[in-house]
């Protein structure tokens, strides 16, 4: 089968100018991410001014570290195209956890200010930070949350602190949990498109957005169970954080949202203060003027002014090559953060795709590295290619034969994400993690009706009875559907075997009932034996250290994070690809030519829904069984 593609390409000189401009823009963005304003590196709040009429205080100042929760909260540490493009930088969840751990152990600190500044953060990440703040408080430190406004996710984070302060014109957007499924079949019918898909498992509805106009009974039942579990955890978190009973919290949710003053009257927050008044409040609480450590969680300081060319070159050299790996015993952390595909991992401005070859080679190197004593696999993935998932599963199993391997699940570790987790002997998840989805889906999109409507005809040349199996102009014949079903049944059986080999004795119900594409929260997965323990990334690291019998160790990321030079090389290589060819769009799975439009789509929830739909369409079009989450489960904060 052959095909032709037409593409529009700018002259070579224009491409060269674009590449040079992109390089300059990324260098400038990178410097802005790492270069802290000189006023931020001191021990006083840059917004606070001295009052000449105020008598000098003689009491020893109380040192308070300032932890800013802002921008994109990533899973893996290091530079990324997305963080550079945002212009605001990013923080990884493990960097924030380590900052909180360091603050808890710092005897010079009286406490911590958690400055919440509209971050993009997931529910599991909120749970991770809440646990770290709770540990800091157990170490005798006070934790104060300050924000201009709070959505529901950041409000859950703030409730981990001793007190919550909001600016007078702020709000607490406490309204409950909301989700919405989008179905495209009506649009497809209008356009003459047909989604011809087969699923293994009654609940494996990954293709249902394209084949139905409303949820199936299985989907509706499953989503009700998920929302019940998540809502229960949502209420319990507020109850624990604010010392309220459940009926009161349910009443507060039903009466929300709240202005800052209404939230104070309801007991949802403790103070309504402008920032300068908040500093006076801190001084009052500590009985002494406050010494703010505003640089406490800065990853590095710029020792020289940026107008010094030699200093700038030194900074850029470190950024381009990345920091060196520390010597000595280490626990490696491998991040599976994104859809799982075959081949090499790919990253661009809108996210990453995890390649099986990249992860396999990284795990092989970790196995052969004598300094790496254990590995933590951090999974935040809705799944993807069945073949790629099996390759990673196999690599994890081989590593687990010689070194401790612990899985830590993030927001989502389902379908292919759960498949690879079964390669490890120990799985941890947060109560709100979405996992399971043991099932398979496969098929194709049929464009014949659309082509007829717009006056395009085609003529096929075929040799072999099933040569047109994946033709995009006609659906499966009954014989072809039977063959595809047999292939998918074999993939599904292998998936069941992998789970049974890993979890068989731990499962509390028959695997045939637990599978079927059903998804679970982490709390429910623990009850069913699908995971071993509730906990976060730091819990997994500590468990790995105990199993490896080491007390002192470094943390290493595998594969090693890319330096800025590698990121720029990747970006420039992508800019030279023939555009817009179908092969290029397919390889870039979730990020093809449609993403600039998605990026400007407006509300974050709409962008995520459309973005997930594009991901799913690309995966389903790969002409192989797919292990992918049935839904983009995005809870409206």
Walk me through this protein's architecture.
The chain starts with 11 loop residues before the first helix and ends in a 9-residue tail after the last strand. The chain is globular and about 90 Å long. Helix content is 43%, strand content 19%. The chain is built from 24 helices and 24 strands. α4 (123-138) runs parallel beside α5. The longest helix is centred in the middle third of the chain and has 26 residues, at 217-242. With 637 residues, it is an alpha/beta fold. Among the domains are: 42-50 and 58-175 and 256-293, Alpha-Beta Complex (2-enoyl-CoA Hydratase, Chain A, domain 1), CATH 3.90.226.10; 330-458 and 469-560 and 577-628, 2-enoyl-CoA Hydratase, Chain A, domain 1 (Alpha-Beta Complex).
Which short descriptors sum up this protein?
2-enoyl-CoA Hydratase, Chain A, domain 1; 8-stranded mixed β-sheet; 7-stranded parallel β-sheet; 24 helices; 19% strand; disordered N terminus
């Amino acid at each position: 089968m052959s095909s032709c593609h037409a593409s529009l390409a700018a002259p070579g000189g224009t491409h060269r100018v674009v590449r040079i401009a992109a390089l300059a823009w990324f260098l400038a963005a990178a410097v802005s991410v790492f270069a802290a304003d000189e006023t931020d590196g001191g021990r006083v709040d840059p917004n606070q001014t001295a009052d000449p009429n105020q008598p000098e205080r003689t009491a020893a100042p109380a040192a308070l570290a300032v932890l800013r929760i802002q921008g994109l909260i990533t899973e893996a540490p290091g530079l990324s195209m997305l963080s550079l493009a945002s212009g605001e930088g990013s923080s990884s969840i493990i960097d924030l956890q380590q900052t909180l751990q360091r603050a808890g152990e710092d005897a010079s600190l009286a406490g911590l200010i958690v400055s919440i500044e509209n971050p993009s953060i997931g529910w599991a990440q909120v749970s991770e930070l809440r646990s770290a703040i709770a540990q800091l408080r157990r170490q005798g430190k006070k934790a104060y949350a300050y924000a201009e406004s709070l959505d529901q996710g950041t409000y859950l984070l703030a409730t981990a602190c001793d007190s919550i302060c909001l600016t007078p014109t702020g709000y607490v957007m406490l309204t409950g949990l909301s989700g919405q499924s989008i179905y495209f079949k009506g649009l497809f019918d209008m356009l003459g498109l047909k989604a011809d898909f087969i699923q293994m498992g009654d609940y494996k509805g990954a293709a249902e957005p394209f084949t139905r106009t409303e949820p199936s009974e299985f989907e509706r039942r499953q989503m009700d169970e998920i929302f019940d579990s998540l809502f229960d955890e949502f209420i319990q978190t507020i109850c624990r954080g604010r010392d309220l009973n459940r009926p009161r919290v349910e009443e507060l949710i039903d009466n929300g949202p709240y202005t800052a003053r209404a939230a104070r009257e309801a007991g949802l927050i403790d103070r309504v203060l402008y920032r300068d008044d908040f500093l006076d409040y801190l001084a009052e609480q500590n009985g002494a003027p406050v010494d703010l450590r505003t640089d406490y969680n800065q990853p590095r300081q710029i020792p020289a002014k940026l107008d010094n060319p030699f200093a700038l070159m030194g900074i850029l050299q470190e950024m381009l090559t990345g920091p060196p790996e520390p010597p000595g015993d280490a626990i490696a952390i491998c991040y599976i953060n994104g859809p799982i595909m075959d081949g090499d991992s790919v990253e661009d401005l809108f996210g990453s795709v995890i390649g099986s070859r990249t992860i396999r080679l990284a795990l092989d190197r970790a196995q052969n590295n004598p300094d790496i004593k254990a590995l933590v696999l951090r999974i935040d993935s809705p799944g993807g290619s069945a073949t790629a998932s099996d390759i990673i599963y196999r690599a994890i199993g081989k590593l687990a034969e010689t070194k401790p391997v612990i899985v830590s699940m993030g927001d989502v570790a389902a379908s292919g994400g759960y498949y690879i987790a079964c390669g490890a002997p120990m799985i941890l998840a947060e109560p709100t993690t979405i996992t399971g989805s043991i099932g398979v889906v496969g098929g194709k999109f049929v464009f014949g009706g659309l082509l007829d409507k717009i006056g395009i005809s085609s003529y096929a040349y075929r040799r072999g009875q099933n040569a047109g199996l994946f033709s995009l102009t006609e659906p499966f014949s009954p014989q072809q559907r039977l063959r595809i079903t047999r292939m998918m049944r074999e993939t599904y059986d292998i998936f069941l075997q992998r789970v049974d080999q890993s979890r068989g004795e731990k499962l509390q119900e028959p695997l045939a009932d637990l599978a079927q594409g059903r998804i679970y929260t982490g709390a429910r997965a623990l009850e069913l034996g699908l995971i071993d323990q509730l906990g976060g990334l730091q819990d997994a690291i500590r468990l790995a250290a105990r199993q490896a019998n080491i007390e002192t160790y470094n943390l290493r990321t595998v594969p090693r994070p890319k330096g800025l030079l590698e990121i720029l090389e990747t970006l420039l290589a992508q800019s030279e690809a023939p555009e817009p060819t179908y092969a290029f769009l397919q390889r870039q799975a979730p990020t093809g030519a449609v993403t600039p439009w998605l990026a400007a789509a407006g509300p974050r929830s709409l962008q995520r829904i459309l973005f997930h739909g594009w991901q799913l369409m690309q995966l389903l079009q790969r002409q192989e069984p797919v292990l992918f989450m049935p839904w983009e489960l995005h809870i409206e904060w």
